[in-house]
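User: quick one, fold this
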Amino acid sequence: MQVPWKNASMAMPAYGCAFVVAYSALLASASTIDAPLFGSTAFVLGALGLLSNYIRSVGSSKGQHYFGQAMSLTLVVLLPLYGLIIDPHRFFPPIVFEFRDYHPLALMTWVCVITLTVTGRWGNNEYAPLSFVLLPALSMIALSAPHNINIEVTVATLFIVIFGTFLLAYETTVMRASKLGDEDVLNERSLIGFHIYSGAQWSLVILLVSSLLAPLLLLIRLPIAPPNVRLPLPRRYFIVSPEFTIFSRHMSLWGGPINLSPRKVFEIRGDFYPYWRAQIYDEYTGHGWQYNEDEDPIPAEQIDYGVYKFNVSMPPHPKIVSATVTALGMRPSVFLTPGTTLILEVEGLLPELRLSHGGVLRAYKVGFSPQVYKIVAAINDPPLDAMRSERTAYNDLSRDELSKYLRLPYIPQRVIDLARQVVSSAKTPYEKAMLLAEYLRKNYRYSLSPPHVPMDADAVDFFLFWSREGACNFFASAHAVMCRAVGIPSRVITGFMSDEYDSKQRLLIIRERDAHAWVEVYIPKHGWVIVDPTPPSRSRIPVWDIAAWWRELRSHIKWRFAQRLFLWVVGLLAVISAVPMLRHQLRIFKKRFAGIRLTPGHRLSNSYAALVRELCRLGFRCEPHHTPLQIASVLRAYQCSEPIKSTLINASRLLQHLSVLAYSPIGFNEANVSEFEAEAKRLIWRMRWHWLLTSLRRFQKLLSVRRSRAL
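Assistant:
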């Protein structure tokens, strides 16, 4: 059997590039589908397919060849049949069957695995190129980008362009040399270096052209294009992502990176409770939430100096929490409270201290909360069994309150259909709310750097069907909207959630990164109940879950690095591409300025060529077949002004002297050549000065002609 690779070391660059191209596409596919087990299975099978390729192509014995063929047969025939016919749900994630948009992406993943298995080999003098893996890899990126424009898709695109270009050029050269029998090309040491430079140059061209064409996506707003493909970038430059610690009356859902530090912001000493609310949002706008203040908030009753009491109704299942809150370096515009505030104690007077019926406590004329205050609040702690079995109607809510917490703007119908589909098996409001929360935790990914939401898209719809990743504000918003879609009153709460509690000191530490958003749903006869649909940001990673290992690594990548990744890659490619040109210019520089290393003959010919170039600039026609004596005779007979005439006569004498030096064995020595070089340089500078003066006279004459015509 004829082998395309001369040795294993020559095959390694091609197989290494095929590995990077394929696995970049598989990583983007696994992150888009959000099915780690499926992605890990594709990774392992692709690696086995690439290994079987390598054994068949490089292996010299028949046993190695047969072993590679048996491995390929197993991967190409048996496993796909088992995965597609016998047990498809084990090989394909459930989300692929729920959303038809992912069917082509999952199919292209398997095409990529099979391509890795059947290419890169010789059979019957026909070679299946490894570069065929570019087709499914590019298809997977094209299918992933509309669903999930993130760092995985960006890195995969860059890797496929760079390594795919090298693979295509390198493999083409080897195939051509093998077919023509040109062994000298394959033996050159600079074979890989040449393809590195050429691959970098072509990759740079492709990336620059694509970056120039990308703004057209902002103008071509085709209805078939997904929202984040139509408007992928502008919001990054003029809309700042919301900081949870501000707790304003409006919470926007525009996406983008969220930067929260680990610094301490509160110390709470007293009873432990993880959720400390700061703001309540009750109206969804399609792009965020807003808080509508009550027209008649509950006023505070001052019972002592700095001690205020609120006459509020207790929750159905009250549990008293008492603690002292100390703000460290920040003072939000509202008080932190674990539930319905009963008593507030501060050092000083707070005029117009009011409590909304939703539980937001604010001092209106102060503008910020005191740094230290003691609070006594009642939280609602109903029994789970009672909530699960509660099926009565919402008779304990007024008609206005029920309408307020069920109100939705126009949202896409598929959001409502999805919510109804998820809760189809539930019978009670609490079961429906928990099913919706569990669905979001399992099928969506927590991320502090989600893609930006397009201006013309509904934020919840974009999160559920396009980006599929977001921070806690997206999870809480999606859960609240889906609860309202199935008839469950809900509202979004923002504040802090922390379990960093020291039971001995009775001290709870709250850090800036503990800023959180969750949901409260209303259960008949049991009041408002907390439901947190956000999945944990960090969980234990099984060994088999390769995609989850990357997700953990990705959480440590700074967003600024991801934003500047394209520029850094383009800069690196530009540097690599410039190496051959710099080497060429360096050789010219050495030849021009390192005259000592040149032979006298080379120095003489270089001086003659420079002299002829300057004569051509002055307008003399010097053909390559003209000898120095012919040029000298033309210069002697040329009629012109006196300064130029003397320069031309000197040039004619120098050319005659050149003929004597070049063809006289006695006069051709180091001293005479150096003298000729010096005289040639003087004449060249004089001719350049004459050329400049002549150009100025022509320009002055042209201006005078235009003035005369104008007059």
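User: anything notable?
Assistant: The first helix runs from residue 8 to 33.
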